[in-house]
Design a protein that fits this description.
The complex is a heterodimer of chains A (348) and B (372).
Chain A lengths: L4 H33 L15 H11 L10 H21 L23 H22 L3 H32 L4 H6 L19 H15 L11 H4 L9 H26 L19 H19 L7 H32 L3
Helix pairs in contact in A: 1-2, 1-3, 1-9, 2-9, 3-4, 3-9, 4-5, 5-7, 5-11, 7-9, 9-10
Chain B lengths: L1 H6 L5 E5 L11 E7 L2 E8 L7 H7 L17 H16 L5 H29 L4 H21 L8 E2 L2 E2 L5 H26 L2 H7 L7 H7 L4 H4 L7 H4 L20 H25 L19 E9 L2 E9 L5 E7 L1 H7 L1 H4 L5 H10 L4 H5 L1
Antiparallel strand pairs in B: 1-2, 2-3, 4-5, 6-7, 7-8
Classes of the chains: A mainly alpha (348), B alpha+beta (372).
Chain lengths: 348, 372
């Protein structure tokens, strides 16, 4: 692969911009969505319909003083927020958003740097994210933060396992860890996507839901936001953070939501493929628009869930992962392995 | 307890919950000894909002003390008003006109609904569900508007007078009440569908925070906490006052003893209060709202008096000793949540932190009433 420096720099800037823009405007979407659900107006003062609110929030955060409480582990304290944001950006680099789909650059792939082992790399960096919570909680010298860090670590470890097991199933049916290949293998209409068992993923819809739930738990989103359960642990691991330290945790969380939704889209919902066969003109064409549509639909579901459900407790959360999801994912893995052998015999 | 636990070489740590903490809804402080996520010991520390209401009662005339009643439990202030004016009427032998009694019961029950609605929202907020709070506040707002139109205030009411009321209600208020009941009736099924039936909520509440009837007896817990433990005790039924004997309502009792039982008791009490209000509106007689001869200077005879009413959170009792002067010799307020909180230390042992806080929410604490 030849490396074009200008191309790389442009794409990296684009990815960072995309992450920051998403983080900022998903907050706006979340606040507006919550307001809608709760019959309020939400942000409405800054700009039209409060559209400039994220900028105002950002400016406010940046102008705040960074406070270092007494007795903290200062290097780790400063390192933790970076661990929250940097892996998120790194993951976004490998995610293919699909071809533009229309206009003069219809076949131009929107991806910064795709890899053969893209999926592995994503999970590797996703695991680094837990370091941010652990270090942030540990170095704060705050008991609430430590409890929160312990919760977050046990939660992330528990949910990474079923998530990876299900991803392995998809890798098995596709025969590749290359994200573009995974998407292309689902071509031919929504019935060929991995959320249905036609491609060999035995309990397709269930695995899709489990994967989605795991991505919620991985990103510490409600109803699995035990790490920052405000009625128990105040603000959890970022209790002692102010200014952009807090801002980075916040942006990292939203960037992770984007990643979770993007990954679910790629693995289960056919990425940038149209739900209709490619033989239908225009609507059937693969396009980044489809990708974003599916991704933001998932993100909107995440927002809806947060403002609808109360929080689970730690034990029921871990029970769900270890006693239900992991055994189920294992069974699905074995079943899918069998199905992959059976399907060609049936001529499918 | 903490030193004992430490001496057993357990790895425990102390966690200071409050006085500023989102879950305590006020300035309650709880010193927790934790073993990881489990509560080993929880010691409530009170006094952060102590205002000496009992001593104030001994330094003010009987009439001057009346506004203090709205500031104890500011969420169901009218029950406290009612308890106090009925005590003074009992001491002085004042007969209250029937219309005034009906209006008193009507407004008190409205206030009870508003208090339970706020609890409902705040409780689900404790469990991490944010949205029901705003819906409950929306309904509660209607009650506050209604009560504002007759009492003149929205929270710390001082509406009742010795011998009657300060202001008569008009037809607008009564139609407003009827409309509100219609609205709330249409919304209760929604609350039950979306909140009571929620899987996660049931998981958090069922079999969590068991309080036996025996424990309630030892700590003197009353109100929904007691009725959620299977004891059918309601001052309105057991020691009736005002016109409650003439009204037809049930006392919801649940035998499960857990947080869910206390939740259900309060939700059912909202329904029962709506029934009471409907009957009050239907049976409301015409007539005066003040007793004809109320003495200007209240000077009760020497003696020891007690009167209790059923407030939203339990039995509110006032015991007072009069030495025949225009001030009380001794004023003792029995606040229900003080007793309800006192069982927290024993009942929360061995709970998860999240469950302990959900359990605390199910006790429906109002801190200014605990501290008085």
């Amino acid at each position: 692969m030849d490396i074009n420096l200008v191309y790389m720099v442009l794409f990296l800037a684009g990815i960072i911009g995309f992450a920051a823009l998403n983080a900022a405007y998903l907050v706006w979407v979340e606040r507006k969505g919550a307001a809608r659900i709760q019959r309020r107006t939400g942000p409405s003062e800054v700009g039209f319909a409060g559209l400039l609110q994220p900028l105002a929030d950002g400016a406010k955060l940046m102008s705040k003083q960074i406070l270092f409480p007494d007795g903290i582990d200062k290097p780790l304290f400063m390192l933790a927020p970076m661990f929250a944001m940097i892996p998120a950006v790194m993951i976004l680099v490998t995610i293919p958003f699909g071809p533009v789909g229309f206009g003069p650059f219809a076949d131009f792939m929107l991806v910064a740097r795709e890899m053969n082992i893209g999926l592995l790399m994503i999970f590797a960096f996703a695991s680094v994210n837990v370091m941010a919570l652990l270090l942030g909680g540990w170095s704060s010298k705050n008991k609430y933060a430590v409890i929160s860090a312990a919760r977050a670590v046990s939660q992330d470890i528990a949910y990474e396992i079923p998530m990876i097991l299900i991803a392995i199933t998809i890798v098995m049916t596709t025969g590749s860890m290359h994200l573009s290949t995974i998407v292309e293998s689902q071509a031919g209409g929504f019935w060929n996507w991995n959320w249905l068992p036609l491609q060999g993923n035995l309990f397709g819809p269930v695995t899709f839901i489990i994967f989605f739930i795991c991505s919620l738990a991985e990103t510490n989103r409600a109803p699995f936001d035990l790490g920052e359960a405000e009625s128990e642990l105040i603000a959890g691991f970022h209790t002692e953070y102010s200014s952009m330290g807090f801002g980075l945790f916040f942006m990292g969380e939203y960037a992770n939501i984007v990643i979770g939704a993007a990954l679910t889209t790629i693995l289960f919902l056919g990425g940038w493929l149209s739900p209709l066969p490619a033989s239908i003109p225009f609507i059937g064409a693969p396009s980044v628009v489809w990708f974003l549509l599916k991704m933001y639909l998932l993100i909107w579901t995440v927002v809806l869930i947060r403002w609808t459900y109360p929080r689970v407790t730690l034990w029921s959360l871990l029970n769900l992962a270890w006693k239900i999801m992991i055994p189920f994912a294992l069974v699905n893995l074995l079943g899918s392995a069998a199905l992959i052998k059976i399907l060609p015999m049936l001529g499918l | 307890m903490s030193s004992q636990a430490l001496s057993q070489n357990q790895e425990v740590f102390e966690l200071n919950l409050g006085p500023q903490h989102p879950a305590t809804h006020g300035v309650l402080r709880v010193k927790l000894v934790m073993d990881g996520e489990y509560v080993v010991d929880a010691e409530p520390v009170l006094g952060y909002i102590h205002r000496m209401h009992e001593l104030m009662g001994e330094n003010r005339t009987w009439a001057q003390y009346l506004p203090n009643m709205g500031r104890l439990d500011y969420l169901s202030a009218l029950s406290y008003n009612l308890g106090y004016v009925e005590l003074v009427e009992k001491m002085m032998g004042i007969e209250v006109p029937e219309r005034a009694e009906y209006i008193r019961v009507l407004t008190t029950e409205l206030n009870r609904i508003s208090s339970h609605l706020l609890w409902f929202g705040a409780f689900v907020l404790d469990l991490g569900g944010f949205t029901p709070l705003l819906y409950a506040f929306d309904d509660r707002e209607q009650i506050l508007d209604l009560l504002e139109s007759v009492t003149g205030s929205r929270l710390t009411y001082c509406y009742y007078r010795f011998g009657g009321l300060y202001n008569d209600v008009d037809d607008d208020f009564l139609t407003g009440c009827t409309q509100f009941l219609k609205r709330l009736r249409s919304r209760m099924p929604m609350y039950h569908d979306l909140v009571t039936g929620n899987v996660i909520l049931r998981q958090r509440l069922v079999d969590v925070g068991p309080i036996s009837a025996e424990m309630c007896r030892r700590y003197g817990a009353t109100g929904p906490v007691l009725r959620g433990s299977g004891v059918n005790y309601d001052v309105r039924k057991n020691e009736p006052y005002s016109i409650y004997p003439e009204l037809d309502f049930d006392v919801p009792v649940y035998n499960e003893c857990d947080s869910m039982a206390r939740y259900m008791v309060r939700m059912d009490e909202i329904e029962q209060s709506m029934r009471i209000i409907e009957q009050c509106i239907a049976q409301m007689p015409q007539g005066d709202i003040m007793a004809p001869k109320v003495p200007k200077m209240i000077k009760p005879e020497v003696g020891d008096y007690y009167h209790a009413v059923e407030a939203a959170r339990g039995t509110f009792g006032i015991r007072t000793v009069s030495d025949g002067k225009n001030q009380a010799y001794r004023m003792k307020l029995r606040a229900p949540t003080f007793c309800n909180l006192s069982l927290f230390q024993e009942a929360s042992k061995g709970m998860l932190l999240a469950d302990a806080l959900a359990f605390m929410g199910s006790l429906d604490l109002v801190i200014p009433e605990i501290d008085r």
